[in-house]
Amino acid sequence: MNDVLALTRDLIARRSVTPDDAGCQQLLAQRLLSAGFRCEHLRYGLTDNLWATHGTDRGEDSGPVLVLLGHTDVVPPGPVDAWTSDPFEPEIRDGVLYGRGAADMKGSVAAFVVAIERFVAEYPDHRGTVAMLLTSDEEGDATDGVPKVAQLFRERGQRIDWCVTGEPSSKTALGDLLRVGRRGTLSATLTIKGVQGHVAYPEKARNPIHQAAPALVELSTREWDLGYETFPPTSFQVSNVHAGTGANNVIPGELQVVFNLRYNPNWRAEQLERECEAMLTAHGLEYEIRWHRGGEPFYTPEGQLRATAREVLREYSGAQPEESTAGGTSDARFIAPLGAHCVEIGPINASIHKVDEHVSVADLERLPDLYFTLMERLLCPR
Predict the structure, then answer these.
(1) What are phi and psi of 242, to 5 degrees?
(2) What pLDDT, in 10s, does the model give residues 22-54?
């Protein structure tokens, strides 16, 4: 069996539902140690992180630092009986590998390892440092994973020049999209205070639903901006509204609204928070709000990483890749503030987080060569 396929199957068989790593990183560290890497296990809370490096990043002439970034955790499978086969028993049917994490992102992690082993075997004296950073807290709260490691890197003065994340980024064919940035994400839980009462006597109550409605309309219809380079405009979406006692004759005493902003580099989280709170205050609302900053936007401008990635993907897909900042978010949002240029390259994303998640075996077997070529052109230029 092909090495990357065998390793992917082995990883899928480990029930690493976030934040449980289920031994994935130990398995990978053993291989990387055998290949000559230095491996450091960084555990925070219930989260496992692996930092593996080969080469040197010390001194003025040490060369660039290239990091392959991934995660070993997966989302829960949901009802197992909805799957055609057990989500943690990898199965190949008609040239397709099925299992939770096949596309997001155990296939990419396995391809990283196979590629990086080959790279250091062929170029033992490569310039700079090639490294791998893995976490088991990408699919969960993302608090004890890459954010904690990034803070450690700041304290140590660890430099990162380039970062390649293996998130499933392709749309219909491997390599047809190059992710060059991500929007920021900002969430809030808003509580509007009212006065509970009988619906027949509204003058003796204060309905928080009625009070909040104009403010929510203004927030949801506002044109926040017109976009930023390849980024779409900032969007505001309400994801949950809750109020009431369950009785149809009671005016509720409070209303809870959960909303999210996906924003481009025109904004920082604190600016959006101030804007939203100013609008709520202008409507005369009595409210409390709890913010959660999920990560600032990042964008990789033209440079060696983006140009090289574009060139490699064009060769592998046979066409110029789309360069995009769309989609959700990834752990690269914590690496970019360290000064790194970040791109995301991975398999087709059509089945991620779904029942019967899968990846094409042919695509999976091509991934190590793609990552190897990228490393070779960045760290061993002709």
Answers:
(1) -145, 135
(2) 999 999 999 999 999 999 999 999 999 999 999
Which residue is catalytic, options 73, 91, 117, 376?
73
pLDDT digits (tens, 9 = 90+) for 256-267: 999 999 999 999
Tokens 């088991």, residue located: 136
- Give me the helix-helix angle, 3-12 and 361-379, nearest 10°: 110
SS3 of residue 255 by DSSP: strand
Catalytic site residue 254? no
Other C-beta atoms closer than 10 Å to the C-beta of 27 total 16
- Amino acid found at 323: E
Using alpha carbons, select from 238, 196, 189, 233 the residue that is nearest to residue 213.
238
Task: Quote the tokens at residue 342.
Answer: 């970040």
Distance CA 262, CA 184 (A): 6
Residues 6+ positions from 10 with CB-CB distance below 8 Å: 27
| Residue bearing tokens 């390649």 | 164
| Catalytic position from the list 57, 91, 138, 144 | 138
Residue 229 · residue 323 · CB < 8 Å: no
Residue 114, both tokens:
């196979």
Residues 6 or more apart whose Cβ sits within 8 Å of residue 264: 183, 184, 225, 227, 228, 231, 232, 233, 234, 297, 325
* pTM of the complete model: 0.89
In 212-347, the DSSP E strands lie at 235-243, 250-251, 254-263, 287-295, 298-299, 322-324, 341-344
Active site residue 138: yes
- Alpha-carbon span 259 to 241, nearest angstrom: 9
Question: What is d(CA 371, CA 119) in angstroms, rounded to the nearest whole number?
Answer: 9
Q: How big is the chain by its Cα radius of gyration, in Å?
A: 24
